[in-house]
């Protein structure tokens, strides 16, 4: 798309009534909260004209959400899909890593993310995280922002709802001076740093990729400060970010605006809607511009409808559900460690008189390594007795959605990677958690389950990797004994709180519909953004 300078404000007469544009990355961790909110918006206001803009790959899913709503509310308008041309965030990050010869795993993620966390490995992981915040080169940013601007002008919505991690979307909205709100799958803490007294976010909260516990122990505070200072320095000096910033300004006159700027130089009246409640987050001072909606999770068919055969199997006994997310691939060594941890835990439980026979449902995505044969065979050997008893299922795909499995009433423990959606789904279902954090904010959720007393960190001494002895110990802590019963009780209390307050998606929809009545002149006085 040819580069051209963008206007710094769209004319107010260019807006229509009862029209919202949802603008998000295509990655499911972010897109799912938008899909859930779309469903709730059309249920709340069937006359709303709803547009959904993202990259290639979500057309079918958006159409499915639209069809599902219209089956329940026949007079609801269909969602209008707009494709943003260009690589997705994940595709662009992979291109950046390859172009800069950054060592990668077989699944494409940086090796530094998978290296056991020590001070210097944390520095490398922080350095390799810059592409998540600015995933595109300058020329790509210009094209994508121009496409987004064209969609914004074509739709002429009353309100644009932007993914808080979508740098091109944030940049376009800030530059055009349009009325917008941010929607995030993450917690309050992500946006609350500047609001904390005594600069607590610098010394009390663990730095990115530090893996430190919360609150940061006294002897680790100097290291925590060093990591934060390094993060600021590497961000300011990063050649990739500077090139993208300069190119964008020179070509279309726009200043780069990133997720970091939502805390550093947020517009005064910008609202940020987050997928949590205060009770599900760290203790902190809550900034007034951050609106906790409660967990925003996509509605899904009950498991009895989606996969009745799986429900029958789950009903045989309490089940450990392992799902490390759609992005993360497990290498053969780590898969075998996990299998050995399961064997130790299950053998220990089987020796207890009168104990239930615990089952395992494991959604396993192995790294595709041409140098390694079929990595499933060692796992089958390790768990041969449990396989013979029909107590373990290892699958690449499950027909039922994770939330449907978790709400089946048969899940004793959810083992996941620490993603926001995985955490929220387990909270809603009242299921204790064992977290195996893999990157960035995953470490937050690993700490959070311990702070709230609803789970354990399964790899405390070797994170992000895990070992069979430590992981089996943490699994047993969640599955058996008085601590396990206390965790289950607290998890069920939080689930009851979420149920009492209602759907997070429905609350997000109510806030967005209320925003439609606000005057654009009041919300958007500032029409340009100073670079920094």
Care to describe what's here?
The protein has 24 helices and 13 strands. It is α/β, with parallel strands linked by helices and 532 residues long. The strands form two sheets. A seven-stranded parallel beta sheet has the order 3-2-1-4-5-6-7, with helices on both faces. A six-stranded parallel beta sheet has the order 10-9-8-11-12-13, with helices on both faces. Helix 15 (332-350) links the parallel strand 8 (319-323) and strand 9. 46% of the residues are buried. Keywords: Transferase.
Brief sketch in words of this structure:
The protein is an alpha/beta fold and 532 residues long.
* E-strand count: 13
Strand order of the largest sheet: 3-2-1-4-5-6-7
Biggest sheet features: 7 strands, parallel
Choose one word for the global shape: globular
The proportion of residues in beta strands is: 5-15%
Average the pLDDT over all residues and give the rounded result: 92
Q: What level of helicity do the residues show?
A: 40-55%
Q: What is the multimeric organization of the chains shown? A: single chain
Number of helices, counting only DSSP H or I runs of 4 residues or more: 24
What's the alpha carbon Rg, rounded to whole Å? 23 Å
| Distance between the amino and carboxyl termini | 27 Å
Uncertain residue ranges: 12-16, 520-532
Q: Structural class, from secondary structure content? A: alpha/beta
């Amino acid at each position: 798309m040819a580069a051209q300078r963008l206007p710094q404000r769209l004319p107010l007469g260019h807006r229509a009534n009862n029209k919202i544009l949802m603008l998000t990355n295509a990655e499911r961790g972010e897109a799912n909260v938008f899909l859930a909110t779309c469903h709730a918006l059309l249920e709340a206001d069937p006359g709303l004209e709803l547009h959904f803009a993202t990259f290639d790959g979500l057309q079918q899913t958006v159409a499915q959400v639209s069809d599902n709503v219209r089956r329940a509310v026949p007079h609801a308008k269909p969602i209008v899909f707009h494709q943003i041309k260009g690589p997705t965030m994940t595709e662009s990050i992979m291109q950046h890593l390859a172009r800069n010869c950054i060592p990668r795993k077989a699944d494409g993620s940086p090796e530094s993310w998978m290296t056991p966390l020590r001070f210097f490995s944390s520095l490398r992981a922080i350095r390799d995280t810059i592409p998540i915040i600015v995933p595109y080169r300058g020329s790509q940013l210009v094209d994508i922002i121009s496409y987004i601007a064209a969609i914004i002008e074509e739709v002429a919505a009353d309100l644009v709802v932007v993914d808080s991690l979508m740098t091109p979307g944030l940049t376009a909205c800030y530059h055009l001076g349009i009325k917008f709100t941010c929607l995030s799958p993450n917690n309050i803490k992500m946006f609350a740093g500047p609001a904390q007294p005594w600069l607590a976010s610098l010394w009390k909260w663990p730095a990115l990729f530090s893996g430190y516990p919360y609150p940061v122990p006294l002897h680790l505070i100097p290291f925590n400060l060093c990591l934060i200072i390094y993060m600021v320095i590497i961000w300011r000096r990063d050649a990739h970010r500077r090139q993208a910033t300069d190119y964008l300004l020179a070509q279309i006159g726009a200043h780069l605006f990133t997720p970091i700027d939502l805390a550093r130089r947020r517009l005064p009246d910008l609202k940020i809607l987050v997928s949590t409640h205060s009770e599900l987050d760290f203790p902190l001072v809550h900034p007034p511009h951050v609106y906790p909606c409660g967990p925003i999770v996509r509605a899904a068919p009950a498991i009895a409808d989606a996969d009745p055969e799986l429900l029958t199997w789950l009903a045989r006994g309490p089940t450990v559900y392992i799902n490390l997310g759609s992005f993360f691939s497990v290498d053969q060594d780590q898969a075998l460690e996990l299998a050995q941890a399961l064997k130790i835990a299950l053998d220990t439980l089987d020796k207890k008189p009168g104990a239930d026979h615990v089952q395992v449902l494991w959604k396993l995505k192995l790294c595709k390594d041409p140098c390694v044969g079929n990595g499933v065979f060692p796992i089958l050997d390790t768990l041969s007795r449990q396989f013979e008893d029909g107590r373990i299922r290892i699958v690449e795909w499950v027909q039922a959605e994770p939330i449907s499995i978790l709400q089946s009433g048969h899940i004793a423990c959810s083992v996941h990677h620490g993603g926001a959606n995985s955490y929220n789904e387990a909270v809603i279902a009242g299921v204790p958690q064992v977290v195996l954090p893999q990157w960035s904010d995953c470490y937050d959720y690993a700490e959070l389950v311990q702070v709230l007393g609803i789970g354990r960190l399964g790899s405390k001494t070797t994170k992000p990797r895990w070992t069979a002895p430590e992981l089996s110990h943490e699994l047993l802590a969640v599955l058996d004994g008085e601590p396990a019963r206390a965790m289950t009780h607290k998890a069920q209390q939080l689930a009851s709180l979420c149920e009492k307050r209602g759907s997070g998606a429905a609350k997000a929809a109510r806030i967005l519909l209320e925003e439609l009545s606000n005057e654009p002149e009041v919300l958007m006085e500032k029409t340009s953004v100073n670079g920094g």
